[in-house]
Amino acid sequence: MPDKSADSKRRVTIVDVAKAAGVALSSTSAALNNRPGVSDKTRRRIVAKAEELGYTPSLRGRSLSSKRTFSIGLVIQRDIDVLESDPFFGSFITGIEEVISHKDYALVLQISKSERETLERYRKLSSDGRVDGVFLNELKINDARAELVRELGLPAVAINSANSLQFPNVRQDASIPFRQLTELLISQGHTNIGHVSGPQEFLHSYVRQHAWEQTMHLHGLRIGPVFHGDFTYEGGKRAASTMMRQTPRPTAVVCSNDLMAVGFIQGCKDLGLRIPQDVSVTGYDGIALSTYIRPTLVTAQTNPRHLAREAAEMLMQIVDGGHPENRTIPPASIVLGNSVGRAPHK
Amino acid sequence: MPDKSADSKRRVTIVDVAKAAGVALSSTSAALNNRPGVSDKTRRRIVAKAEELGYTPSLRGRSLSSKRTFSIGLVIQRDIDVLESDPFFGSFITGIEEVISHKDYALVLQISKSERETLERYRKLSSDGRVDGVFLNELKINDARAELVRELGLPAVAINSANSLQFPNVRQDASIPFRQLTELLISQGHTNIGHVSGPQEFLHSYVRQHAWEQTMHLHGLRIGPVFHGDFTYEGGKRAASTMMRQTPRPTAVVCSNDLMAVGFIQGCKDLGLRIPQDVSVTGYDGIALSTYIRPTLVTAQTNPRHLAREAAEMLMQIVDGGHPENRTIPPASIVLGNSVGRAPHK
DNA sequence: CTGAAAGCGCTTACAG
DNA sequence: CTGAAAGCGCTTACAG
Q1: How many Cβ atoms sit within 10 Å of the Cβ of residue B218?
Q2: Alpha-carbon torsion (A143, A146, A148, A149), positive or negative
Q3: At the top level of its lineage, which domain of life is listed (chains A, B) (predicted)?
Q4: Predicted confidence (pLDDT) at residue B105 exceeds the cutoff of 80
Q5: 3-class secondary-structure state, position B100
């Protein structure tokens, strides 16, 4: 018998505990789960016995009978090469973990490479019964996940969704910092201010661009050129090489995220333009990279970890049968780097 | 009755399929899982019925009876603030997913903030019966997880472990690229070459430093100064401000990873040193950031995604009762940036 | 408060 | 090849 591995030691079950304590199964279950239905005295005896036997409840057993998985799902859709440099990712997951691990829930993480695959993942998470709820993160305009998840009856909480969605939502409003960033540029004398946007299908791209536009109008300025980027460094670089060759070129550019802003700055440098003497640039996110580069970036510090914590708490409530109110966390606060200066004289 | 949610529609079970097809439960199970024990004709009839009824097997039911979870676990231990800028993370997870999602396995991801918590996580993953196997990633010297996991009887595969560990292992040898990087510097006339290491407790810190040392000796050179870093940007910056104030200061520095190398370069710039005219710098990892900075970094391109794919395949084999051989993937290849130049004349 | 029983949805010997 | 039955480890009415 070469195999004396762990398989041999049979698991201690709740039945063993019940027998050892000399009480019924139901009493044992109630005692161990802090449910009413047992006297304090018996409860204590049962709990002691359980500890003595080294009983630890089987998730599989609980799952089947309680029809819960004690897991929640997060599906992240990314182009492969982008994932690596994505700051949102790690922070967001950390925030989720901070909440759910204390509730004995676990995170099932899936990576998807296309919208079709993403929908397939949600569908399968549901049909397998693998999770009790999911996040609706990085929503697109008319995101197909919303209808799917509703149809599947899968509990969900949305992150920064439009209010129209029928899911509990947590948001950190980007329009305030984008207004502030735009006004900062205006206050420095800039009048021709461009925008490097994210992909048009994303809700958050839209919100950010809209805030920039509104602020320009508010101050009686015509909106500058817009480049439709993709949230990547390379996209930012391309934006610079396109936008900054126009005449007249903008003297300042509001970028939809930090990574593009950093790429934009490099693109400007490659064209021989100085930051901020020739061009002022702002970002959004507050990633570490924005403090590594020179000049350091003017941006707004978002808080994905906080956002995730709120979202996870809401999802835990839903899973427990609750109906949480929508939540809002404070808007990202402006971080003053050195990438913004006074508008150059004409 | 206000609630007409998804709860109302009862799940289609294998019993329903068996009844509808007019056969026994066992035949149905065999047919649906492509196990022998049913005639081809009945199998087809059963499969057709299952599809007709929209049957999709319940993971919970399967789990309980098969004593499998169809999940594997990855525990990542990080200081909170480091996680965000960690490139390893996203790539590694992507690699895992590429393998397991096709096998109907899912990844349970946990974030831990201390070694104590990490051990607790492994312990709980095992006692809950939440996963069928785990990764032993980012191993420390005498890593306590190894003994724990063995004791728990938890199937595991190790990433870049020392050979002495009794787990199937996949590695990408770092000593080759570190020798090459060191020799590149030597070939440029450098003789006083320093090293910025990772935390001493990590196996991979040790391997990298050792390769640098060996190469120096091989070429009859005395090893230069060593700074014990922490793999962060700030750590690299501190290394520069400490090491580059010494007299004589090294003319080249081999950093244990890219993030520290990037910080080191910034630290040098802050001291008024030019890269590579005054100091040459190398990294390791090949993160995107290394191409964003100027000068671009000389480094080695690792492949965490590939590493993860191999590891995940091995874990899948173990879970299926196999005993995979150790694997090796090709070493990271040198990426020539502009951070290395000829040694300055004395 | 306590106990015996059914059930969650599968898999797997075992007998025919 | 096919079928009836037990079992995985829990929870949850239900009756006492």
Answers
A1: 12
A2: positive
A3: Bacteria
A4: yes
A5: helix
Give just the sign of the alpha carbon dihedral B234, B229, A89, A313: negative
Assign A194 to helix, strand or coil: strand
Q: A167: Cβ–Cβ under 8 A, 6 or more apart, which residues? A: A136, A146, A149, A156, A157, A158, A161
Residue A9 has a pLDDT of 58
CB contact under 8 A, B108 and A108: yes
How many other CB atoms sit within 10 Å of the CB of residue A236? 31
CA A210 to chain CA centroid, Å, is: 21
Q: Which residues touch strand C (CB under 7 A)?
A: A 22-27, 30, 36-39, 41-42, 64-65, 67; B 10-11, 13-15, 25-26, 29-30, 32-33, 35, 55-58, 60-62, 64-66
Percent of residues, chain A, with pLDDT higher than 90:
75
Q: Which residue of A has its CA nearest to B67?
A: A60
Paired tokens of B190: 């450098």
Whether B1 has a pLDDT exceeding 50, the answer reads no
**Coil, strand or helix at B1:** coil
> pLDDT band for position A162 (50/70/90)?
confident
Ordered DSSP codes for A207-231: HHHHHHHHHHHHTT-----EEE--S
Residue bearing tokens 């549901």: A126
Q: How confident is the model at residue B6, as a pLDDT? A: 37
B274 close to B300: Cβ distance less than 8 angstroms = no
Instruction: Give the mean model confidence (pLDDT) for residues A181-198.
Output: 98
Mean residue pLDDT of chain A comes to: 91
Among all residues of chain B, which has the CA nearest to that of A303?
B84
**In angstroms, what separates the C-alpha of B75 from chain A's closest C-alpha?**
11
**Chain B: closest CA distance from residue A35 (Å):** 20
The 10s digit of each residue's pLDDT in B202-216 is 999 999 999 999 999
pLDDT (0 to 100) of residue A2: 30
For residue B163, what pLDDT is reported? 67
Q: Higher confidence at residue A259 or residue A24?
A: A259
CB–CB contact B108 A107 (8 Å)? yes
Residues at the strand D interface (Cβ < 7 Å): A 10-11, 13-15, 25-26, 29-30, 32-33, 35, 55-58, 60-62, 64-66; B 22-27, 30, 36-39, 41-42, 64-65, 67
Kindly list the structural domains of chain A, giving each domain's residue range(s) and its CATH number in brackets, ordered by start. 10-57 (1.10.260.40), 71-172+304-329 (3.40.50.2300), 175-302 (3.40.50.2300)
